[in-house]
Amino acid sequence: MSNYLLSKIKIRGLYNSFLLGYDLGQVPPPKFVVWDCTRRCNLNCKHCGAKKEVYLKELTTSQVKDLVKKISEYKSEYFVVTGGEPLLREDIFEIFSFAKEIGLKTGIATNGFFVDKNNSKAISENFDSAQISLDGSLYVHNKIRGDNSSFQRAIEAVSFLQRAHCRQITICSVITPENFNDLNNLAKKIEELKVDIWKITSVMPIGRVEKNDNLFLNDEQFRNLLLFIKKNKKKLRIRLGENLGHLGKDDKEYRDEPFFCPVGFLTCCIGVDGSVRGCPEQPDNQLFREGNILENDFKEIWEKGFKKYRNKNFLEDKNCKKCIFKNDCRGGCWVMRLKSLQCSIMRYSLL
Ligand code: SF4
Ligand code: SF4
Q1: Helix (H) or strand (E) holding 57
Q2: What pTM was estimated for this model as a whole?
Q3: Can you list the residues of the chain whose pLDDT is less than 70?
Q4: What's the gap in Å between 325 CA and the centre of ligand 1?
Q5: Helix (H) or strand (E) holding 232
Q6: Rounded to 5 degrees, what are φ and ψ at 163?
């Protein structure tokens, strides 16, 4: 049996057992808790989903440690951090060494700029996995990131982490019309770097992209990207960003595991000021907020919130209702849905 089919069976089983328990009032804890730790960042990437929003207060070290203790007692397995740039938080190692000490698995998503010889050991010790962004070869990456040293710093970050024996390194690349023609150069670099995973994704209609539709691939580019992925997926260990949604009858040609949005079933995200939403890509606003850990108990927010994900609200969409992939796709990505972009099958005529 293929990995794809096995994962599909596993995911269906997960939905069914979760929803059975949910109907009986028994909600299992989230397996992954993501912490969107800051909106501060040293770079200015054109496609960023954050707008460097200013929060008057970020959670304090002790508030985060308290959360970490709670989620560990609640039997969540993973605590991972993203931003903004997480390495701008001075307490990042204190918090994550504590998380590891009490048995959580950990991960970090960073632009790599601040990874150096001195902290790479601490990163490798305190995080089970690290994800670094790389969007093209030298000129293209630096132009997108708005900083002439960002490419070099990202490449060096990978090499420092490899020398410090980081357990899993992922490169994440966001493909837009700006780097689409640089894909082969980028692939060559990924091959040279010998990272564990290459995650390929596209922009979402949030942050700086909200008002910039030019950053979405056109039909031809998207279909060519899929062909590229199909051809290189094994050699370069490519994984697709979930926001691309279900890709129709050929979904298994592009990924080893079917599309799955884990929000409300396996995952939730703690925002900069303690608000709780589904995932870090979801804008931190009323549409997605389910509560705040400074005001309500985290367990209660998880168990009583997240109704729209668990109640099959996606079937209100007439296309989803009659779709043959609805039991796997469940309406696609909730962030892409903000601009009705959730269905790649219809957008790119993939059926
Ligand atoms: S119609 Fe809805 S359920 Fe079907 S693939 Fe598109 S987004 Fe997913
Ligand atoms: S809402 Fe979209 S970006 Fe967030 S976890 Fe689901 S598929 Fe991924």
Answers
A1: none
A2: 0.95
A3: 51-52
A4: 6
A5: helix 219-232
A6: -65, -30
